[in-house]
Design a protein that fits this description.
The complex is a heterodimer. Chain A is mainly alpha-helical. In chain A, strands 1-2 form a two-stranded antiparallel ribbon. Chain A contains seven helices and two strands, in the order βααβααααα. Chain A starts with 8 loop residues before the first strand and ends with a helix. Chain B is of the alpha+beta class. Chain B has three domains: 51 residues; 119 residues, Jelly Rolls, CATH 2.60.120.1440; 76 residues, Phage tail protein beta-alpha-beta fold (3-Layer(bab) Sandwich), CATH 3.55.50.30. In chain B, strands 1, 2, 3, 4, 5, 6, 7, 8, 9, 10 and 11 form an eleven-stranded mixed β-sheet that branches. In chain B, helix 1 crosses helix 3 and helix 2 crosses helix 3. The radius of gyration of chain B is 27 Å and the shape is elongated. Chain B starts with 8 loop residues before the first helix and ends with a strand. About 8% of the residues of chain B have low confidence. The chains are: A mainly alpha, B alpha+beta. The interface between A and B is large, with 59 and 60 residues.
Chain lengths: 172, 308
């Protein structure tokens, strides 16, 4: 990435010194919890450090917010899945609870899948879930969703491409 | 062949088409043969194919609950997440505006759900009229000038406000009032000032320190229990001479997962001040205060048992 000449590059420690408090405040307002805000502020800088790209002094806060917002959404996704999973488990008789290890791994799988599906339009997402997890055929999905078989095919193909890109083409 | 190699989109799409064809039409000999030909033709075809298989594995992980559970679960979590995202956009607006924005003034019919996750607390400013502190696992709607507590607990404070909970409506004037939904009844407790509580079974005026529990059929005055009802708004759990089982039930509201109290230690009593932002430290403290041991299978599956 080439930077415009008028921008100069900010070392990460300077960025940290100048904006860490501000970012922390921003996150605290978003999350309503100072502990989580502090954790995610830290994670934001770690993410930038690992990314290893130069940071321009043009609008550094916009960059921080972009990275932090992604982390907040990851955090909320984990949280939402955890609650949904716990609720699903609560329906089971105690004897058939999966072991803690299995639960932990299941949650990680769910998180991975939900992360991959992120950004899909609801109709596409729904068709894909029925196809990939439900094992339904295009025709069955078409009937269930009241759309044409051809549309289901298009939805599934575009969801697969979306997931492929998420798996193999983004550096997170 | 590098594992990070970026493939042309046309190849990825072709591989996807092959995969769908194979699944929908079955692996007949002719389809198999055509696929093999396609794979033979180019190393990038094989890479795309291999990556798709790898990706498919993610969805077949044996550790996943079965599809009948997983699909609704993913739907629910997604709905939850998009609701919070919508709220967050609002949050971004607040930041852009600098000071706390007076939401009610933007539009008189403005309406939104505010919600907190487990362990989260949130301060919501509703203009000059009222400010709300939302406790863990709570949901609040704002309809015009009225606040509606849908779940959990809220501390409402302001010069002039109206708040509804499941079994009552509460009018506050220069008052700070706590509303909390329990199983089967709503608790309304005045911290400061005066509030008029209207219910299906009548009206009552409450002053500093007074509280009522309102169910569908009755309104009963409430005393003060072993938990300081207002301390959560300062980020603290303050208890005096509380049964351990009751303490864990209260502390469990701020923590994800199950917090289980062994019957053998349920009747132990404790007093103390705990920080809500540090639920794990809270558990460690109990182990110091009482002859109990914390058995932590995962961070959301915790049992409190007697010291062996």
């Amino acid at each position: 990435m080439s930077l415009p000449e008028t921008d100069s590059i900010v070392p990460l420690d300077v960025l940290y010194g100048t904006h860490h408090r501000w970012l922390n405040g921003w996150l605290r307002r978003s999350l309503g919890c100072s502990q989580q805000a502090a954790d995610l502020a830290q994670d934001t800088f770690v993410r930038l450090l690992m990314r290893g790209k130069p940071i321009s002094d043009h609008a550094p806060r916009a960059l921080l917010v972009r990275v932090a917002r992604g982390l907040v959404i990851d955090h909320w996704r984990r949280d939402a899945l955890e609650r949904a999973y716990l609720d699903a488990l609560a329906q089971l008789p105690e004897a058939s609870y999966p072991s803690p290890d299995v639960r932990h791994e299941a949650l990680e799988c769910l998180e991975r899948i939900a992360g991959l599906l992120d950004g899909l339009k609801p109709a596409i997402r729904e068709a894909f879930l029925l196809y990939q997890l439900g094992g339904l055929t295009h025709r069955q999905i078409a009937e269930q969703l009241g759309i044409s078989s051809r549309t289901v095919e298009r939805h599934v193909a575009s969801a697969l491409l979306h997931c492929y890109r998420g798996c193999f083409e983004t550096m997170r | 062949m590098s594992t990070t190699e970026r493939l042309p989109e046309a190849i990825v799409c072709a591989a996807i088409e092959w995969q769908m064809r194979l699944r929908d039409q079955g692996a007949g000999a002719d389809v198999q043969e055509q696929l093999q030909n396609w794979l033979q033709r180019d190393a990038r075809h094989r890479l795309a194919w291999q990556r798709l298989q790898e990706m498919g594995g993610l969805f077949q992980a044996s550790r996943l609950p079965d599809a009948a559970q997983t699909i609704p679960l993913l739907r629910r979590a997604e709905a939850d997440l998009s609701r919070r995202r919508a709220l967050k956009l609002l949050g971004a607006g607040l930041v852009a505006g600098g000071a706390t924005m007076l939401v009610a003034q933007t539009s008189p019919t403005w309406r939104a759900d505010f919600a907190t996750a487990t362990g989260e607390r949130r301060r919501i400013s509703l203009g000059a009229a009222a400010e709300v502190m939302l406790n863990t696992g709570s949901a609040l709607d704002v309809e015009g000038q009225a606040l509606i507590l849908r779940a959990g607990e809220a501390l409402v404070e302001g010069v002039h406000w109206q708040a509804r909970c499941r079994f009552a409506t509460c009018l506050g004037r220069n008052a700070s009032v706590l509303l909390r939904e329990h199983d089967g009844y709503s608790e309304i407790r005045v911290q400061r000032g005066e509030a008029l509580v209207s219910t299906a079974v009548g009206q009552v005026r409450l002053r500093d320190g007074e509280a009522v529990g309102v169910s569908a059929a009755a309104m009963t005055p409430l005393g003060t229990g072993p938990v300081d009802p207002f301390s959560w708004a300062r980020g603290l759990l303050v208890v005096s001479d509380i049964r351990l089982a009751d303490f864990l039930a209260e502390a469990g509201r701020y923590r994800k997962g199950w917090l289980i109290c062994d019957g053998a230690v349920a009747e132990l009593h404790l007093s103390g001040v705990f920080r809500l932002d540090e639920p794990e430290a809270m558990l460690d403290n109990i182990a110091h205060l009482l002859p109990v041991r914390i058995v932590e299978r995962t961070r959301w599956w915790v049992r409190v048992v007697p010291v062996a």
